[in-house]
Amino acid sequence: MKKLLFQFDTDSHPSVFDTVVAYDGGADHVIGHGGLTPENVTALVEGAIFTRAPKDKKNTAIFVGGSNMAAGQQLFIAVQRHFFPGFQVSVMLDSNGSNTTAAAAVAKLASNGSLAGKKAVVLAGTGPVGQRAAVMLAQEGAEVTLTSRTLARATQACQDMKARFNVDLTPIEAADSKSREVAIKNANIVLATGAAGIELLTPEQWQNNPNIEMMADANATPPLGIGGIDMMDKGIDRHGKIIWGAIGFGTLKLALHRACIAKLFEDNKQVLDAENIFALAKEMA
User: What is the pTM of this model?
Assistant: First the structure.
């Protein structure tokens, strides 16, 4: 029986990246649907849960993606509301690679030493990856600050993560390079999760900071988010700090994404979100 993955995307066009990884993860066919909301997903979910016998439902799964994390979370919840005993399929949330990218980055940082008690700063952290990474750092025991160009956006992101994960994050406004330098002054860990092609820190702003122990940058599009590092850095030492570039931990991200897809087809009761995706990432790291 064919393994069918239904890609439910909140954007107009389902992600090509997610489609490719889905095939690499073991799906036989990937069927993409774009522009989905909690209001229009009902018939699609019913089609997925009613068509195969109970013993065969493990061969059908749903992947929720899209660029908007909040919209993805709402769709992910809405999909599960249509499940009932005997009629459900496995489902995964990874809007904009949020869970898998964040999990890979934090798992690699954690592989270099305990994060408990460390001061961590997530730069430009209001996007999907930044929010989930901030949560994972906090769950590892770090004291986490999340920056944004506006305090309102940083505050809203911290409140959203508090509501979802019950973790305390500190919002900071850091609208320019100088303010970001101030934000990381006492940081032990710095994770950059800004938009592609935007430099958040210059080399001079971090290289001589004696407090920084580890850094990671999720941006693989030049210029990188953290100047003076290389996207291929894999836990190497630069200026006394352990550095992870986007491709450096991206190998784990892709392996993790593929592993999660494979896991969806183990049975029909998998629900993969930040917590269990991060747990798997730490095992794989």
Answer: 0.95
Which ranges of the chain would DSSP assign to H, the alpha helix? 16-24, 42-50, 69-81, 98-111, 128-139, 151-165, 177-183, 246-264, 274-284
3-state secondary structure of 209: coil
pLDDT, one tens digit per residue, over 137-149 is 999 999 999 999 9
Question: Each residue of 19-73: pLDDT tens digit?
Answer: 999 999 999 999 999 999 999 999 999 999 999 999 999 999 999 999 999 999 9
Q: Same structural domain for residues 245 and 108?
A: yes
Q: How far apart are CA 118 and CA 233, in angstroms?
A: 22
Q: Give the phi and the psi of residue 28 in degrees, each rounded to 5.
A: -80, -35
Which DSSP letter does residue 216 get? E
CA-angle at 118, arms to 112 and 120, nearest 5°: 90
Structural domain that includes position 191: 101-249
The helix (H) or strand (E) run that includes residue 113 is none
State whether 215 and 117 are in the same domain: yes
Q: Which residues contact 20 (CB under 8 A, 6 or more apart)?
A: none
Q: How far is CA 246 from the centre of its chain?
A: 13
